[in-house]
Amino acid sequence: MSITLITIPYQNKMPKIKIIANKTSVLNAELLGWLSEQAILDLSACNTFFKKNEFESYVKEFLPKLIKLPTDVKDNETSNLVIENICNSLTEITLENLPKVTTEENIDIYTTNELVNAETNIRQASINMTLAKEEPKDTEGLKESLEDYFKVDKIRDDDELRDVLPNIITDNRKLIIVDAPPGSGKSKIFQGYSYAAYHHNKDIPIIVATSPSDQAAAELYYDLKRKLSLIGNDFKLLQYNLRILLTDLKDKVVPRKSIIMVDEAGFIGTKDMAKLLKETSELDIKVIMVGDSKQIPPLPAGNGFSLISETLIKEGKAVVYNIASIFRQKDPSEKQATKHIRSGNADIALKTYDEKTYQDGNKALKFEDKATEQAVKDYVEYITTPNNPDSSATILAVDGISARDINDKLTPYLKQANLIKNPVTFNENGRKAEFYEADRVIFYQKIRAEENGEKIVVNAGIRGEVLETKKDSLRVKIAEDRVVSIKAKDCFNLEKAWCLSMYVAQGISQQRSFLVINKKGKMDLAQG
């Protein structure tokens, strides 16, 4: 079954519907004990709007097939009766009380009251936070400290950041929004702000680095840590998974007057964005969000980042800082392709890459009957090329399942090329995990480890390289000067990272990546 995902703000009159993506599955869980109303909430978790026929197919055909007994509950008359009652209740759900919009094509589409309320709260909270002011700042002192950062980080005179950053760091509003394309140096917004603030005043508030992507949050945290360490070591810096941050904000664990820096904000769904703004405004916390309103839509329903930008611009309450320049791509044609993708012309962007050949003779875009297998071969050939300065290149997959499949396919090729060796296999309760020395790995959850004899926790999103495989543990390098030891039972929260899903790879900058696209299917490169 295909569920249509439409990521546009709820409004009474909708000029045009843009179909953004298709999800072949929206649920993978046991549903025993669910209230029937949860079916609507589950559907809207992945879809801002849905059509009547999609909803009926979902609750009457798809969900009943997934309902099953937990493995620890025996099949008996009582449990079967419960399942039958749940299935019956699902068929009785109607859309009568849900918000509805009629499109230009005269099609009725529905959403949930919960999402409408969340969008209303986002609009109001974003306006309130931009009206709230911090205490007056030493504008000239901060600008002088920012000049020191420009020298340390060798920011070019023609870099757009030299115009934007002074305005951002002296902006005393509680909510700062920066909208910028990929490769524009968004991470330097956070680095420059933190560096200048700490350089100017060592007694700055606690800085919290977060992102809906654990990988992006980890990259942001270590970028900030490296920059601040150039000045001193008494700064207060925290890394947070976004969901855990929302919980700690609600429980008032995060100190008042902190500064929360949110990277990849475009990946935050409507409901989480509403929670973030509500809790931070109550704690008098400053929020700096950097994202791309034109990127692929978030996994949860809605798009809170775009909604904030649209609201603030429409209401004239605040400036949304826009960065247009692209620096990551050096080739003019690749810069133009990125702009085409952001404007919704992915077909033109792909044509640009189809016509491009790299200096090593490889075409930028290939059409193959067995694309995955060919990409694996091309990738291994590329990273084993003598004197290749970019041996850290990564394959990108559309989703996590595809990434695991490609990592499995890579293993024999990596072995043949002598890139990995000395395998170890861990088994526990039917689970199996195999790793090699020199394997690239990513921490998918917080993992307990040891470093220099001390017990520590490695945050989710950190990438590393396996230095040594033992029967009961792995030694993993997670930074230039950091090596941790992980016991076998904790290694099941590690995944191989030669190939990453696009969502997990947010925040990674590389000279070249290999992206596998199934031509027969659909994949949206941007919201346009």
Description:
There is one protein chain. The protein is of the alpha/beta class and 528 residues long. It is built from 15 helices and 23 strands. It has helices at 38-46, 52-66, 77-91, 113-131, 139-152, 161-169, 186-200, 214-229, 242-250, 270-282, 304-315, 332-342, 346-354, 371-383, 400-416; strands at 3-5, 21-23, 50-51, 100-102, 108-110, 175-179, 207-211, 237-241, 259-262, 286-291, 320-322, 394-397, 421-428, 431-437, 440-443, 447-451, 454-458, 463-469, 473-479, 482-487, 494-496, 499-501, 513-515. A six-stranded parallel beta sheet has the order 8-7-9-10-6-11, sandwiched between helices. A five-stranded antiparallel beta sheet has the order 20-19-18-15-21, with no helix packed on it. A three-stranded antiparallel beta sheet has the order 3-5-4. A hairpin with a 3-residue loop joins strand 18 (463-469) and strand 19. Helix 9 crosses helix 10. The radius of gyration is 25 Å and the shape is globular. Mean pLDDT is 76; it is low at 1-40 and 520-528.
Short description:
This protein is an alpha/beta fold and 528 residues long.
Brief descriptors of the model:
528 residues; alpha/beta; five-stranded antiparallel sheet; 15 helices; 37% helix; globular; disordered N terminus
**Sequence stretches where pLDDT stays below 50 over 5 or more residues:** 1-40, 520-528
Q: Any idea what the radius of gyration is?
A: 25 Å
What overall geometry do the principal axes of the alpha carbons give?
globular
Query: What is the helix tally?
Result: 15
**What is the mean predicted local confidence, pLDDT?**
76
Which structural class is indicated by helix and strand composition? alpha/beta
Distance between the termini: 24 Å
What amount of the residues lies in strands? 15-25%
Percent of residues in helices: 25-40%
Largest sheet: 6 strands, parallel
Q: How many distinct beta strands?
A: 23
Strand order of the largest sheet: 8-7-9-10-6-11
